[in-house]
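Write out this protein's structure.
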Amino acid sequence: MKKTTLTTTFLFVLACLIYPAKANFLKIKNQKKLPVIPIENFQNMYQWGDLYLSGQPSLDALEWIKKQGVGLIINLRTDDEMNEFKQTAFDEEKMAGELGIGYISVPIGGMDAYSPENLVKFKEALSEENGKILIHCRSCGRVTYFLMSYLIRFDNFSIDDAISIGKQLKYSFPLEDLLGEKITMSIVN
């Protein structure tokens, strides 16, 4: 029995070393009960375990996340949005490179971009880093919906558990407030 347990443990550790992208998914599953913590120095920035979730980060925020050990930025803003931002502020992708932070763009713009295909792209981007990740859009709204969808689709969170995380970010469901009651949802296949 002990040999089997030792062998299983060895194979699991070996698999995590050979396929490190899979370890990030395990990290998120272990975060289920963690609170979402607002980062007070930066508007619309939150930490949930090893994930930093935010609106458009400032240059100061990028330097700060580097100090926190973030190894990857996933940007959900469109190319047009980022080109406009670059004209008035800085080139985020270039700055991330100078700071030694990986950078992936998964452009989400318009309602047609909220698709299963883009959710898979988001999942693939998350699997690129085994450590801390910053995911951002303009205000943290797209981040909230993609994270919630990811948790439900790929990490076996219930809809209510994902909504609980989302409500600590930018998700709102005014119908509950208007009725004064909690509403539960389910997926109908």
